[in-house]
Amino acid sequence: MTALAKLFGFEEGKHSVRTEILAGITTFLTMSYILAVNPDIFGSLEAMGMPKGAVFTATGLAAIVGTLVMSLYAKKPFALAPGLGLNAFFVYTVCLTMGYSWQFALTAVFIEGLIFILLTLTNVREAIINAIPASMKSAISVGIGLFIAFIGMVNAGIIVDDGGTIITLGNITSGPALLAVIGLLITSIMLVLRIPGAILVGILITAVLGIFFKMPLPADAAPGAVPEAVTQFGGVMSAVPSIKPIFLKFEWTHIFSLDMLVVVFTFLFIDIFDTIGTVIGVSKRANMMNPDGTIPGVKKILMADAVATVAGAAFGTSTTTTYVESAAGVAVGGRTGLTSFTTAICFVIALFFAPLFLAIPSAATAPALIVVGVMMMSTVKDIEFDDFSESIPAYITLIVMPLAYSISDGIMLGLITYVVINLVCGIIKKIKDKDEKMITVIFNILIGRFGKINPMMWVLSILFVLRYIFL
Fold first, then answer.
1. What does pTM read for this prediction?
2. For residues 279 and 267, is the Cβ–Cβ distance under 8 A?
3. Buried-exposed string 36-50: b where 16+ CB fall within 10 A, e elsewhere
4. Taking the domains of the chain in order of start, what are their residue ranges?
5. In the chain, what percentage of residues exceed pLDDT 70?
6. Residues 6+ away with beta carbon under 8 Å from 261
7. What is the biggest distance separating any 2 CA atoms in the chain, rounded to whole angstroms?
8. How far is CA 64 from CA 67, 241, 282, 360, in A?
């Protein structure tokens, strides 16, 4: 057991090998849906040179490397993989909305990972975290949850484009949309019953049912054309797809642009708070926090996350982050790096089942996106809705993300709104209460002497305003 203690922080008498292994398998079952969902989301970039098979392999490798670092270096039961929401920002915002190449986006992820490493080695990370209001942090999680769920519904045809009302309910009585609705009910029932791996099992069941559902024929289909099945399996096992088309494909020509700054900051911001929120939540559940609320070894945890992001970008996928599904393994009893090591081994085995995962249609992954969106909604209770100076910017943040189809716009507009509202109200209140000169009040607010706006928020909001003016 000495080797286990050295490698994974395992303590004989306190921990059980069997429990740690079962916990690792449980964590894998609850998060392995990313092997199907991530390539499906990146499928929108396939015509631009990102094959789904290569993305599948990059997803698995990023999960393996990140989770192994967490296991052997941090010795914690947390697993990592490319994050939902971060992959959506990569594909739908940076590439499809802003019009940049996926190579540009990979470069931004790579830079973000390097910055995260530097911030983890210093105390700058705490300054950034403390600069963002708590209500905004909560709203970002909720907004990403809404955005992910919206993407799932659109991909499955539950929500469709309508020239009159912009969006409307699709035909949910047949085809992929009906399959997605059935899959959502199946997955939801299993989650309520706390069946291990409910999300992955729901995806697989829905994909199998898709064999019996037909795709709608296009308007210009030839007479007598036979509709294809929603799910078309082409095998179960195969050689691992090559990542050569996307491996180390960076683009350095725009690294000093304002857009690169905004994209890198958005990746960094979401990664930081997603990781910290997950680590705090899972650590509380596992009773792994110190009495003063600190987390033992948190610096190593964040370093593992940062290294995983750099490695994931090199492989060819979006930001790799700590998964909240790690809580499933912790609930089973996982407490050491042996749990995450087991999860990493499961991802290694899964790489050889590429045909199985890549055959899973959008209608089968949509329920996973929707229920993960539900999980991310939990922080809405932390928003102070009675305080409009907090709730209005938070609401702008969370509602803009799905409606503008952009995570970054939600963050930027929410923060700008927060600064403007609190600046004006702070000036009026101080002048009214203390009869101070306006110039004195403004100066005190700018330097963060009083009020809720600190200097870093000024820097961020000014950068965001300049972005909207000039880009």
1. 0.72
2. no
3. bbbbbbbbebeeeeb
4. 2-233+247-382, 388-470
5. 91
6. 463
7. 82
8. 5, 16, 20, 22
Beta bridge partners of 97: none
Q: What's the distance, CA 338 to chain centroid?
A: 25
Taking the C-alpha atoms of residue 364 and residue 37, their distance in angstroms, rounded to an integer, is 9
Q: Would you say residue 282 has pLDDT above 80?
A: no
- Amino acid making up residue 437: K
Nearest-10 Cα torsion for 108, 113, 119, 125: 80
Mean of pLDDT over the chain: 84
Closest CA to 21 of 288, 323, 285, 343: 343
Summarize pLDDT for 125-158 with one digit per residue, the tens: 656 656 778 788 888 878 878 888 888 898 889 9
The answer to whether 143 and 400 have CB atoms below 8 angstroms apart is yes
